[in-house]
Amino acid sequence: MRQRAAILCTNEGYTLLIEVPPDIKHSINSRCHGIDLNGVFVSHTHYAHVGGLPEFRYWGRRPGHARGKLDLIAPETIQEVLGEEEMTRLQCEIFMSLRWQPTQPLLLNDLQLVPLPVDHGGEPTYGALLLSGGKKAVYTSDTSNRLSDRVLALMRDADVLVVNCPTFQPPKDDHITVVEAVELKREVNAARLILTHISHYNKPHDDLVAYARRFPGVVVAYDGLEVEV
User: According to the model, what pLDDT value does residue 88 have?
Assistant: First the structure.
């Protein structure tokens, strides 16, 4: 069974975990044992994206052994979901919440993160633009196909575009579909497209892989996929 989607982004100066699903402990221990996280980005507060945050309290201070707290970049609504008491404990023991603004670069050592406001049915949700060493990666998170001109401009010419698409084709009001993601790749001139967050309402994995092969630079994510940008 496929696990919930998360991304571990690493460069020479910073390691960022994007999304913290409830099975994150198993995902990292089974594939990335011994990593040393520096920060966590949560796109929005639906359970599949934030449910694993309390694991950090029982898992140990962090998966690796570096000193200091982890940076936390997350919407303010996270406290409403986890509860004030739980969030206070996490901030006291594990995390340091960073201040940030949508579309404004946040410098994390030599990694730049730009939160991208997207439309996910009224839930405050943010994709992520990542810049490092002249390379550009974009993660859309959960979003409808209604993206602002500003966000589309920031996505343009990405080396890698990662899109959450639980279903294959429209209509789907609160998520981009696979068909729309392929069109988005063309629209923003992305070099590569990775389809992830695939649900059981999508095509079976092998059928989806066969479909993706029809388009240059399009791949379907799987557990443990590694991509060099």
Answer: 87
Residues forming CATH 3.60.15.10 domain(s) in the chain? 1-99, 103-221
d(CA 125, CA 39): 18
Owner of token pair 């002249």: 134
End-to-end Cα distance, the chain = 27
DSSP state of 63: S
Residues contacting residue 103 through CB under 8 Å, at least 6 positions apart: 114, 115, 116, 117, 150, 151, 154
CA 216 to chain centre: 23
pTM of the model: 0.93
Closest CA to 50 of 11, 85, 90, 14: 90
The arithmetic mean of pLDDT across residues 60-88, rounded, is 77
pLDDT digits (tens, 9 = 90+) for 139-155: 999 999 999 999 999 99
Task: Select the CATH number that applies to the domain covering 103-221 from these four: 3.40.50.150, 3.40.1550.20, 3.60.15.10, 3.90.550.10.
Answer: 3.60.15.10
Amino acid at 197: H
Instruction: Please state, in angstroms and rounded to a whole number, the distance separating the CA atoms of residues 99 and 72.
Output: 9
Calculate the alpha carbon distances from 181 to 172, 192, 220 in Å: 12, 11, 12
* Dihedral-angle region of residue 168 (phi above 0 means left; psi in -120 to 50 means alpha; beta otherwise): alpha
Q: Cα separation of 221 and 198, whole Å?
A: 8
Q: Closest Cα to residue 97, out of 121, 126, 75, 66?
A: 75
Return the CATH fold of 1-99. Answer: Metallo-beta-lactamase; Chain A (3.60.15)
